[in-house]
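Escalated from tier 1: L-Erythrulose holo job.
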Amino acid sequence: MNNRRDFIKKIAAAGALASAGSLALPASLNAAEKKGKVSLNISLQDGLTPGKSLNEKFDYMEKLGVTGVELGGGKLASRVKEISDALKNRNIKVSAICAGFNGWLLADDPAEKQKCIDSSKEILAAAGELGAIGMVLVPAFNSQKSYPHTMETRTRLVADLKELGEYAVRHKTAIILEPLNRGEAFYLRQVADAASICRDVNSPGITCMGDFWHMTHEETSDRGAFISAGKYLSHVHIASRKRRLMPGEDGDADNYIDGFKGLKELGYKGYVSFECGTQGDREKTVSAAVALLREQWKKA
Ligand code: LER
Ligand code: MN
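Tier 2 regenerated the structure:
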């Protein structure tokens, strides 16, 4: 089987909608039926997981029934063996790789853009070896001097992503475009806009995600945002909604039910991955947050 077909199978299994239209549900499965079949797959970034070594962190995850780990992309190629060894005989997979590339894709300096393309390719190859769904990429943070926000910028972005997307497919993984709040990255702020870039690139190697933290500031509806991303949605980040701590540390503000409804309606089978700090005892706050999300998932 060729790489592209392998990859498409993986993405379908990992949760991107298998159906073609972003809002279309397969005729044989209506929304209510779909809701009943989707389970919550939780992932933790390694940096926030209690434990001194990867093995201790994975032991902690297994105790909580967490099945995904999200790793940073820095020096990933040199860590593939160490990570694969630590994951052997465990029910944990690498969910996604979070950034770690150099330069930025929207740079007006061609050298910075090339740095981004080259280092992203290196991370994508390692991500593929580790079986990750993809590598999270922000096209430009506000502090990075970029092309002005014009049609030309968008056209150029789509062309560069096409190259990265095809490379990702060859390595059985994907780029995951991440919209951030306006304080961090004005260029790409909404999940639907990221999805529309994916549609224009038209490569299975270009997908997008939603991060509840940023969505709190930019979206009018969590459910609407996820549904609008449709088949392009491959990953989700989560944090408390006022201070970016563990879900639950901001009390009643930490309600994800509307977003979870959208994920269920989509038939989303990817991961909901923690990206946050904590003000409490990590051992306790992570496990309380996992319990809270499971409770809210049931209610959605
Ligand atoms: C940054 O705020 C963020 O959400 C990260 O996932 C970016 O890579
Ligand atoms: Mn994020």
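Residues 216 and 241 are 7 Å apart (CA to CA).
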